[in-house]
């Protein structure tokens, strides 16, 4: 099997992690291109065609707030995690930790069915 066959599944897995990464990184204001660079630097590489619609959707849902900065030559829209976004971030982190613990039991040498034997 080539990695191309896995691409859609890898995309699905990453989609949710990008939401959490954005909510976390945007606890301090950031703009789209800078966020793309930060995500790539820490291992959450994505492209602009994925990120910008995500930012707009999270803002529409109330998880991000935005403000235009026109102080520099090029105006930039800065996003920041809202209070609702911080609550979502915490819920996603809790769920991530629970899923990680569940996956850890799958890799336990005794196996997930150890208590059944």
Walk me through the structure.
The protein is mainly alpha-helical and 117 residues long. It has a single domain, classed as Arc Repressor Mutant, subunit A, CATH 1.10.10.10. It is 60% helix and 12% strand. It has four helices and three strands; from the N terminus they run αβααββα. A three-stranded antiparallel beta sheet has the order 1-3-2. The longest helix is centred in the last third of the chain and has 24 residues. 12% of the residues are buried. The mean pLDDT is 90.
Strand order of the largest sheet: 1-3-2
Gyration radius, rounded: 18 Å
So what's the CATH class?
A: Mainly Alpha
Oligomer: single chain
Instruction: Name the average pLDDT.
Output: 90
Low-confidence stretches: none
Count every beta strand, where a strand is a DSSP E run of 2 or more residues: 3
| Number of spatially distinct domains | 1
- CATH architecture descriptor name: Orthogonal Bundle
Q: Please give the alpha-carbon distance between the first and last residues.
A: 35 Å
Q: Hey, roughly how much beta strand do the residues contain? A: 5-15%
């Amino acid at each position: 099997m080539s990695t191309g066959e896995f691409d859609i599944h890898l995309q699905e897995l990453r989609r949710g992690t990008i939401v959490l990464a954005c909510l976390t990184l945007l606890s301090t204001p950031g703009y789209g291109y800078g966020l793309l660079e930060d995500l790539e630097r820490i291992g959450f590489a994505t492209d602009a065609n994925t990120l910008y619609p995500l930012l707009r959707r999270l803002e529409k849902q109330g998880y991000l707030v935005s403000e235009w900065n026109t102080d520099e030559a090029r105006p930039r829209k800065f996003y920041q995690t809202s209070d609702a976004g911080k609550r979502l971030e915490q819920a996603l982190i809790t769920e991530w930790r629970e899923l990680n613990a569940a996956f850890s039991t799958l890799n336990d040498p005794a196996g997930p069915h150890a208590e059944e034997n």
